[in-house]
From TrEMBL:
Keyword Cell membrane listed: no
Name recorded for this polypeptide: OLC1v1008081C1
Keywords: Acyltransferase, Lipid biosynthesis, Lipid metabolism, Membrane, Phospholipid biosynthesis, Phospholipid metabolism, Transferase, Transmembrane, Transmembrane helix
Intracellular or extracellular location(s): Membrane
Transmembrane regions listed in the UniProt entry: 249-269
InterPro entries associated with the record: HAD-like_sf (IPR036412), HAD_RAM2/GPAT1-8 (IPR056462), HAD_sf (IPR023214)
Residue span(s) of domain Glycerol-3-phosphate acyltransferase RAM2/GPAT1-8 HAD-like: 27-217
GO cellular component: membrane
Statement: the UniProt record of this protein carries the keyword Transferase: yes
The species this protein was found in: Oldenlandia corymbosa var. corymbosa
Length: 273
């Protein structure tokens, strides 16, 4: 979820993956930091918090960022993801989360697709994305724009009476580490495991180790984003409250500017009368 983990040398880099032939037809890949250039999912949770929730929820999430980062680095990746899911999702209507996932998130995800990883992923006959992010949040983009056949992600709890997210996750919990491996074994079966596994961090090693070949995607500031015309579906831009990807710095600038913008708008309204 955050971007401070040391790179792994257990698996060869993605650049070493040669052309996928007919007998290497299934691919399982992580999302953040692997198929996407950024390995932080924070901006996408911020988008859900603001677009499906409110500016206040987004502010609470932003103020929680130091705690989330500290938890991720020094305690548990799974716990950090549980916390960010609770802050971002608790009390939101499922239909509002789904609407943001379909209409708002794709244009931000599309700018962040890593070309070299996608080229390997796209050549697979059967393509599965396995991620710790909530399925409800990533599935529309991953299936429609990246061409994935299946998304294995963290499943959120929903109150059946209100059809709102509780903020908690369903068992077995956040899909990281060994849970990615178990989810992959369940999806493929032990006799037909993926030919290629692609990840970007140590917690991906579990699922990569059961694939016939594993490749690491290392952080690279010069990584080339995939042109939008290479996506599986034409990107249609929808209106949203935010114009720029709300990473922590951009989000902070936005909230610092927000009171000034409000005062300025009132001043202009008064001037026009």
């Amino acid at each position: 979820m955050f971007s401070m983990k040391k790179p792994s040398t257990k698996f060869p880099p993605i650049e070493n993956c040669q052309e996928i032939s007919g007998d290497r037809h299934s691919v399982a890949a992580d999302l953040d930091g692997t198929l996407l250039i950024s390995n932080s999912s924070f901006p996408y949770f911020m988008l859900v918090a603001i677009e499906a929730g409110s500016f206040l929820r987004g502010l609470i999430l932003l103020l929680s960022y130091p705690i989330l980062a500290f938890t991720y680095l020094f305690f548990s990746e799974a716990l950090a993801i549980k916390l960010i899911i609770f802050i971002s999702f608790a009390g939101l209507k499922v239909r509002d989360i789904e609407a943001v996932s379909r209409a708002v998130l794709p244009r931000f995800y599309a700018d962040d697709v890593r070309q070299e990883s996608f080229q390997v992923f796209d050549k697979g006959k059967r393509k599965v994305v396995i991620t710790g992010s909530p399925t409800i949040m990533v599935e529309p983009f991953v299936k429609d724009f990246l061409g994935a056949d299946k998304v294995l992600g963290t499943e959120i709890e929903v109150n059946p009476m209100t059809n709102k997210a509780t903020g908690f996750v369903k068992k077995p919990g956040v899909l990281v580490g060994k849970w990615k491996k178990l989810a992959l074994l369940k999806e493929f079966g032990e006799d037909q495991l993926p030919h290629i596994g692609i990840g970007d961090r140590e917690s991906d090693h579990d699922f990569m180790s059961v694939c016939k070949e594993g490749y690491m995607v290392h952080k690279n500031k010069l990584a080339i984003p995939l042109p939008h015309n290479r996506l599986k579906t034409p990107l249609i831009l929808h209106g949203g409250r935010l114009a720029r990807r709300p990473d922590p710095l951009n989000a902070l600038i936005f909230y610092l500017w927000l009171p000034f913008g409000f005062i300025l708008s009132i001043f202009r309204i008064c001037q026009s009368r």
